[in-house]
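Running this now, will post back.
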Amino acid sequence: MADLLQTTGDAATVALKQDSDLASIASRIYNVEAPATPTWPWILVGSATETARIESGYDVASMSLTVHGFAKGPGQPPTAAIANSIKRALDGKVIYRGGAELHFTHEQTQIIRDSAEASAYHAIVRFAVGANSEIEG
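Update: finished.
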């Protein structure tokens, strides 16, 4: 699997951008890097982390991926709406991309106050991602 970590982030970004409910509540969806002054509310797909890999005729990897949602109040409800939409858009999804089959499973969501912006909140939505593809050779 060529650059499985990048493939996973790219696949999640495309799936989130294609979700019409999410597009209606988040102005921008960024992959790995956001601009210095992003347009609010916004989403950032973080870098995937590989946690295990097995090679035995198939290349199988376990990974985690964190997606961040940012919104301004009042209170947490706007950020919670983004978090719920991220979860709904990816949880249970199987995506085929770059020769890999990627399985997304929601693990946890947390909403915290964003210390950089007054009245802003930050959703942290973590997924386990199972990936496999046939090894060429």
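Helices lie at 4-18, 20-25, 77-90. More later if anyone needs it.
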